[in-house]
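Exam revision sheet. Question 4 asks you to relate a sequence to its structure. Input first:
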Amino acid sequence: MHAIFRRFLLLQTLLLWQGGFVFYSAVVVPIGTDVLGSASAQGEITALVTVWLNRIGLVFLAILAWDVSATRDPNTRRTLVRQTLGVVMVLLLFLLFYLHDLMQYFLDPTGRTIAMRRPFRMMHIIYLCVSTLHWGIGLALAWLTLAAWRAEDRGPSAPSA
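Answer key, structure tokens:
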């Protein structure tokens, strides 16, 4: 029963985090920019939303750490890869928190307009690249997690995938 609960929590946080990232990027940002009339107005909303997406990512990574340590995957190499990618994701997430805070310094004191466009744009591009890398590693981890669960469910005598 504990394994089902752990897996359910991991799956739900993954769906919320990954789904939120994709839905926000693909749907909300373009619609918000159209409705609000400017990318800077949409940026105010994005600045608040990304904090929440990163917090959800932190919850996902905590549950992932629990799952990696609790899953009895007979493939030790896959377990090591899951552990390594989890650590990389934690480091990237802290980098995202840092970059997010750093970008605030390039805004005017009200936070409504960009005061220094060139450094802000460079930080924003870096933030988008790190976010995309983080998201992609999350997809790889989801795949490896499903394989680990499958191997665990088959038992220790089954060949590893």
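Marking note for examiners. Helices lie at 2-36, 39-70, 76-104, 117-154.
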